[in-house]
Write a structure and sequence with these properties.
The protein has about 230 residues and is an alpha/beta fold. It has two domains: about 120 residues, Response regulator (Rossmann fold, 3-Layer(aba) Sandwich); about 90 residues, Arc Repressor Mutant, subunit A, CATH 1.10.10. It has eight helices and twelve strands. Helix 3 runs parallel beside helix 4 and helix 6 crosses helix 8. The protein starts with a strand and ends in a 7-residue tail after the last strand.
Length: about 230
């Protein structure tokens, strides 16, 4: 099935040229002249690719990208920014930080656009590699939610699993109780530091001898320390 492309562009001349180019390559292209019409269309049927002018009235292009990336239903889209005026390196970098996959300036290099779209859409279809965290004999597979110590499988609760992942991603860094409440309890202060301590105690017990690697930093929080541990 051909990829659907949403072209969000107010300027008719470049829009017509891009639509003709993309349709010749077999893409299904719909043009939207306003953000309202674009968002209405996305709500009905999501495109695989968005080509968006960075000079749309009413909202900065990078803010639109950030909104699309933050929504679970649209975060997998290929997002391409197109600017009709000079931009500083900082502005372009901000667009990539907000979620852009590619960025072009007008007049768009047609051959390069097609090559990049082919690459980006192919990559979108490939299943992402699972994040696997390994440290001091502890192995944690983030997506499949599997944890083991050496050859021994561990049965962890959701909070214990997420707690351990935080430390494996941040070895040697002190994570305060506040850090952990924000990350795992979404900032719910009613959880309190004692809830963190209870889960840390349970996690240490399940890790066996590796549990001593989770050090208490008195009055602050906890740290995964690898000093003297066997890798």
């Amino acid at each position: 099935m051909a990829d659907r492309i949403a072209l969000v562009e107010t300027d008719s001349r470049p829009a017509q040229g891009l639509m003709a180019l993309l349709k010749r390559q077999g893409y299904i292209v719909s043009r939207y002249q306003t953000l309202g019409r674009f968002f209405d269309a996305v709500a009905r049927r999501r495109p695989e690719v968005v080509l968006m002018s960075m000079e749309l009235p009413g909202m900065e292009g990078r803010e639109i990208f950030r909104a699309l990336r933050s929504n679970p239903g649209t975060r997998a889209m290929v997002l391409v920014g197109i600017s009709g005026r000079p931009r500083s390196n900082e502005e372009v970098a901000a667009a990539f930080t907000a979620g852009a996959d590619e960025y072009f300036f007008k007049p768009v290099d047609e051959q390069l656009l097609l090559v990049r779209l082919t690459s980006l859409t192919r990559r979108r279809m490939e299943p992402p590699e699972e994040e696997v965290l390994r440290c001091a004999g502890i192995t944690l597979s983030a997506e499949s939610r599997v944890c083991s110590v050496g050859r021994r499988s561990l049965r962890l609760t959701k909070l214990e699993f997420d707690l351990l992942a935080q430390f494996l991603r941040n070895p040697h860094r002190v994570l305060t109780r506040g850090n952990l409440i924000n990350s795992l309890w979404r900032g719910d202060v009613s959880a309190g530091g004692r809830a963190v301590d209870r889960h840390m105690h349970a996690l240490r017990a399940k890790l066996g001898s590796r549990g001593r690697l989770l050090e208490t930093v008195v009055g602050v929080g906890y740290r995964l320390s690898l000093n003297g541990s066997s890798k």
